[in-house]
What does this fold into?
Amino acid sequence: MHKNSKQILTALVEIYHHGALDTFFAGMPQEEIKELEKYRQSNLDVSQVAIDPKVIFDGRIHYSWIAETLKTFDPNLQSLMIAALPDPIGNSLGTIQQIERAAEPYPPMSKYLLRLLAEKMSLTDILPEAFLPEESLTFLIKNTKSELINIINFLGIYDLAEEVKTIVNKTLLKSVYSGLTAPQQKFLRNCLHQRQRFTPAKMGLGNWQGDPLELQRVLHRRGIVRLGYALSGQHPDLLWYISRRLDIGRGKLLEKSYSAKEISSVTITLQQQISAIINFLKKQDSP
It folds into this structure.
């Protein structure tokens, strides 16, 4: 059985048989019915039961992931696939891959080419977004790349706060604050008044030369690791969607930080931190 069959089957029963699992699966062992109950969801759109490659390639997956897979096809086929992809992703790939974009194929051919590309990228093995189970961080799937990056940057501030508490060199402390944006400075001050339940490895600011861009890069990397820890134990396909929304470099680091099982006393803390960041950012955006 396909790894996502239980979710899809339960969803279809919910839609067409009003969720009557006991009636529909009469004769099936009770243990299996209870297992299916875990995947029950309501208000699902049956049209979402299969992934439409054109939809997911239209802004839901970063072009860098597609570029890596495109290289495995014959150059002539690459040109046609790029032409079949929606803009602006098709234009971006054509420029990056230095491949002249062919004329857009007829709709049936475009559909075939995108399906071929999706299968090579294992898209057909992924649960459609609408069928992902409701978990602590499922809402992140709706975030854009820029929104995710903003959350990641602020997650890194938690690491910084732990180190700032130990800094006695006023010149170094001033350089740290100068390397942050105004909202980051405000968030750092908030973090300094909180007791952290997760202590990260030291950032080593004693060796930092004062370059603000380097500080932001370190914070960003730290934030990606924290996000991976926060996603640990969540549905693996949720990780797939979030990592593909980012570019391939960030996405692979996120996947590396993820664990199939929740990290005891760490995952829940980081999930709460993500909620705190989102609330903070909302307040910053409000008039």
